[in-house]
């Protein structure tokens, strides 16, 4: 099982990206996307933004569940109150754990926003943020 | 190019109404192609002398001459017709093209019983496909090569003519789509390619004997059981040269002889034949010339061979052009259409009305119960299942998988097809519906698929005809989401399964699914009021196109073009709505005391959210990228270049500045790789 996680800002700009594999079922955390899929990942997530923009008006929840699919891969989304989108491309359906993952990521992101050294919509380069996201991915995905 | 050639058929009006898009032509054009392709066919046979007349105009046969008038006939008579070779010749050609005509049994039992090539009788088997898939693939590559050579020049020039680039690019898909529906191969599942008129063309130089021989040869032809020669109306035509003084007299004499000896009705076609006749008249006719255009619907093999219609236009004397046009118009309006209407009325009274009546339903039920196979009480010990005798109780030959041409079921099918060709879609739908259960009971899967295919086409064309693209009020067309879910989707799945999975009929699968997808796109484009409905239609079209893409039915070139088409459909999402009401930022009016806007960079940027979530340009970009990968930048660099430019346009439509989209252009990603390979 492989995951591509992206946090997309309000201008369609990625503020954080991570490709990670599962640690469950004796996985070592290495993403195993096929080559032809790997080079398409950002575009699949980018195209799913069309659906996010549609669904976010119909749903008052922040977690939008699985919103799109592409040849066996699914895209789950979470929209923060500031309209930053958390997008996760995955091949296995695990709604509850993805929801938990997104909620925790949102907590992390809010803490990041509180930092005086971070501006809204800028890319996140913090090493500790990256490490914590990886830990959350290990825990939930 | 192809897109240009449609201007003659009145399609320029449609083209004027719609926006040009680089990713594909409007589906309104595709819809017009579907309507024009499934039109009455007129077979043409000619004598050697009449070939000389055709030769004087620069054509090899009279058929070829008439085919250059197909477009004119459309304009003048408002009903499309196509001129085809005699049905026997077409069947023979099919046999030769395929190497050997394999018996195609729906149940797969025919080949197992060693019945190959029996095909119901005589020397014909059931034709397997509408056209050769390999030829289509070759043609697809040839078309792209031709277009690319022109595109290369256009792209290299400093002042890029984007309109021409769009036209050229769109012509590729239009051509593919035209080829899908332009097969003239007769099919046992439908009667669109069974000719309605058979013309026997002779010249005044012919004697009655040669024309008689031509007609008697045709009458004595042995055709498969699924073709009914009696339903083809024979008509003799005698061409007389206006430039020759006594030609008319000879023509009239020949007409009289035919009538008296054989009881054959004939018509005189009086034309000025260039180069033959009195010198003064010949010179006069040679000075005033008019242009006739190559037919739109030439088949895949004709296009590939490029023998018959190598010339896009031919110049013939103006007088002759007018004479032939008027003559063909008269034939269509005064002979063919009345004949079709008469037959439709007759079959409705004889076959459909009894079926619909209460008594008919009771007897129909009795017939079914009494003919329930060998286990039936009445048929015990007399099992004729699979026998090619038309006298059996069932009109369906299970062994070889066809209905006898004279059977009530096939008559009703023909009735539906003829109503369809006369553009009475409501009538054709109700007629087709009568047969559904019978085909299902007979397990005639291909017949059922074909029936369902045309039921849906009738339904969708009928629905899209109800409102015009300019109908902003949009009163609805009757195709509701419930109809799509409960009626259309199960039928489409059934069609796909029967054609592709059960029978491996790739060309039929391709035709049915793509035609239906195009009609859905046409529906979405004609519905400008309701964005929800537009979304449903577009979604349905994408679902259908993806069926073909995912099914690996076509080669990579065609698949790439279908992906481009999917991108086009995504591009169409809500386009009508967005363009009907462009976002307007409220502007201050100084006359009313409003202050002039102050440039304040810290002020919140105005963002129009009216149509947020109503577009699919990002999806469109993804599918264009997929198309680029499928087309391969090494083999088709020009095509990929054009599409990559379009991807840039689609990405730029998103939120933010170009700098915000740079993540999509990273070096290790597909877009960047493709750009590097084409540059």
Automatic annotation (TrEMBL), chain A:
Transmembrane segments: none annotated. GO terms for cellular component: cytoplasm. GO terms for biological process: endoplasmic reticulum to Golgi vesicle-mediated transport. InterPro entries: Longin-like_dom_sf (IPR011012), Sedlin (IPR006722). PANTHER family: TRAFFICKING PROTEIN PARTICLE COMPLEX SUBUNIT 2. This is Trafficking protein particle complex subunit. The lineage of its organism: Eukaryota, Fungi, Dikarya, Ascomycota, Saccharomycotina.
UniProtKB/TrEMBL annotation, chain B:
It holds the Pfam family TRAPPC-Trs85. InterPro entries: TRAPP_III_complex_Trs85. It comes from the Eukaryota. One of its GO terms (cellular component) is TRAPPIII protein complex. This is Uncharacterized protein.
């Amino acid at each position: 099982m492989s995951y591509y996680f992206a946090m997309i800002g309000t201008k369609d700009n990625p503020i954080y990206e991570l490709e990670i594999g599962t640690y469950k079922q004796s996985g070592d955390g290495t993403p195993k996307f096929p080559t032809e899929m790997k080079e398409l990942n950002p575009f699949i997530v980018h195209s799913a933004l069309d659906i996010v923009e549609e669904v976010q008006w119909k749903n008052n929840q922040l977690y939008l569940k699985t919103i799109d699919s592409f040849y066996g891969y699914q895209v789950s989304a979470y929209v923060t109150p500031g309209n930053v989108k958390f997008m996760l491309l995955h091949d296995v359906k695990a709604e509850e754990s993805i929801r938990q993952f997104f909620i925790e990521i949102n907590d992390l992101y809010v803490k990041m926003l509180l930092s005086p050294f971070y501006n809204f919509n800028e890319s996140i380069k913090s090493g500790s943020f990256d490490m914590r996201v990886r830990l959350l991915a290990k825990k939930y995905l | 190019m192809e897109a240009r050639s449609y201007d003659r058929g009145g399609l320029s009006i449609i083209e004027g109404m719609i926006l040009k898009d680089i990713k594909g032509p409007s589906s309104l054009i595709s819809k017009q192609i579907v309507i024009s392709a499934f039109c009455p066919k007129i077979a043409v046979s000619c004598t050697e002398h009449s070939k000389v007349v055709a030769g004087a105009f620069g054509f090899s046969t009279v058929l070829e001459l008439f085919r250059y008038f197909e477009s004119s006939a459309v304009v003048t008579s408002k009903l499309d017709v196509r001129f085809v070779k005699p049905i026997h010749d077409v069947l023979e050609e099919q046999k030769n093209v395929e190497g050997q005509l394999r018996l195609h049994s729906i149940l797969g039992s025919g080949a197992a019983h060693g019945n190959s090539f029996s095909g119901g009788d005589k020397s014909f088997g059931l034709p397997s496909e509408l056209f050769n898939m390999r030829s289509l693939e070759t043609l697809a590559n040839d078309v792209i090569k031709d277009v690319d050579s022109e595109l290369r020049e256009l792209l290299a020039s400093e002042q890029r003519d984007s309109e021409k680039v769009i036209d050229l690019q769109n012509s590729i898909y239009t051509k593919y789509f035209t080829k899908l529906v332009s097969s003239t191969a007769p099919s046992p599942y439908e009667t669109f390619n069974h000719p309605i008129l058979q013309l026997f063309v002779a010249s005044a130089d012919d004697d009655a004997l040669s024309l008689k021989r031509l007609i008697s040869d045709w009458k004595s032809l042995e055709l498969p059981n699924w073709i009914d020669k009696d339903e083809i109306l024979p008509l003799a035509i005698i061409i007389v040269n206006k430039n020759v003084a006594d030609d008319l007299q000879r023509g009239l004499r020949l007409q009289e002889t035919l009538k008296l000896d054989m009881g054959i009705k004939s018509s005189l076609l009086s034309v000025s034949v260039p180069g033959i006749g009195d010198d003064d008249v010949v010179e006069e006719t040679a000075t005033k010339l008019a242009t006739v255009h190559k037919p739109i619907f030439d088949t895949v093999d004709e296009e590939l061979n490029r023998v018959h219609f190598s010339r896009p236009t031919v110049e013939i004397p103006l007088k002759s052009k007018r004479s032939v046009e008027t003559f063909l118009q008269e034939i269509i309006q005064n002979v063919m259409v009345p004949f079709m209407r008469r037959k439709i009325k007759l079959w409705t009274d004889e076959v459909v009305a009894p079926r619909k009546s209460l008594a008919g339903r009771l007897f129909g039920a009795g017939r079914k119960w009494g003919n329930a196979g060998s286990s039936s009480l009445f048929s015990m010990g007399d099992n004729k299942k699979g026998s090619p005798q038309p006298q059996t109780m069932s009109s369906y030959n299970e062994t070889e998988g066809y209905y006898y041409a004279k059977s009530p079921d096939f008559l009703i099918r023909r009735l539906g097809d003829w109503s369809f060709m006369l553009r009475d879609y409501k009538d054709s739908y109700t007629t087709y519906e009568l047969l559904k259960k019978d085909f299902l009971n007979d397990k005639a899967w291909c017949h059922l698929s074909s029936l369902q295919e045309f039921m849906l086409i009738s339904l969708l064309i009928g629905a899209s005809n109800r409102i015009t693209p300019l109908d902003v009020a949009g009163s609805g067309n009757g195709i509701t989401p419930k109809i799509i879910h409960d009626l259309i989707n199960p039928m489409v799945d059934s069609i796909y399964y029967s054609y592709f999975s059960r029978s491996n009929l790739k060309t039929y699968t391709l035709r049915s699914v793509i035609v239906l997808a195009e009609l859905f796109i046409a529906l979405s484009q004609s519905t400008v009021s309701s964005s929800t409905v537009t979304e449903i239609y577009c979604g349905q079209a994408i679902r259908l196109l993806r069926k073909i893409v995912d099914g690996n039915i076509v080669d990579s070139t065609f698949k790439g073009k279908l992906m481009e088409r999917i991108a086009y459909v995504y591009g169409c999402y809500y386009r009508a709505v967005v363009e009907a009401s462009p976002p307007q930022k409220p502007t201050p009016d100084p006359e009313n005391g409003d202050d002039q806007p102050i440039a304040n960079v810290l002020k919140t940027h105005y963002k129009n959210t009216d149509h947020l979530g109503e577009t699919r340009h990002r999806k469109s970009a993804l599918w264009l990228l997929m198309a680029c990968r499928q087309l391969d930048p090494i083999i088709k660099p020009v095509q990929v270049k054009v599409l990559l430019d379009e991807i840039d346009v689609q990405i730029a439509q998103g939120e933010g500045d170009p700098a915000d989209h740079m993540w999509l252009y990273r070096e290790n990603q597909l877009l960047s790789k493709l750009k590097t390979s084409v540059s």
